[in-house]
Design a protein that fits this description.
Helix content is 30%, strand content 8%. With 105 residues, the protein is an alpha+beta fold. The radius of gyration is 13 Å and the shape is globular. The structure holds iron/sulfur cluster (SF4) (2 copies). One iron/sulfur cluster (SF4) binds next to helix 2 and helix 3.
Length: 105
């Protein structure tokens, strides 16, 4: 994997360190900066196969998934479907089940 491009939106804020695999997600953003997940690749129009996900959002000192928060914005649909679609994506992504990114060597 090549270098990970800087992600903006954090305004230079210090991000949390990646926690150990299986422990609660702290929104460090490592996984989504390393590569886009299947949801991003399948549903965000013209999303590149590599590089950081375009749906990463920064709020309250952590990254959050924009495809859970406001998927219509990224897919190009009206926002009235966001709660239902966001819940479906949250379930598919395993949100709330802990960090699923391999630990760094
Ligand atoms: S799943 Fe893990 S790597 Fe991804 S944002 Fe959460 S804590 Fe960070
Ligand atoms: S769609 Fe959400 S979970 Fe998937 S890579 Fe993008 S920000 Fe991460």
């Amino acid at each position: 994997m090549g270098p990970i491009p800087a992600i903006d939106g954090s305004s230079g804020a210090r991000l949390p360190l990646k926690p150990v695999y299986g422990t609660p997600c702290n929104g460090c953003g490592f996984c989504c900066a390393a590569e886009p997940c299947g949801i991003a690749r399948q549903f965000i129009p013209d999303h590149p196969e590599e590089g950081p996900c375009r749906a990463m959002e920064f709020e309250g000192g952590r990254f959050v998934c924009g495809m859970i928060r406001r998927p219509g914005h990224y897919i190009g649909l009206p926002d009235w479907g966001d709660p239902h679609m966001g819940a479906l994506f949250a379930g598919a992504l395993g949100a709330g089940k802990g960090c699923d990114a391999d630990d760094l060597a």
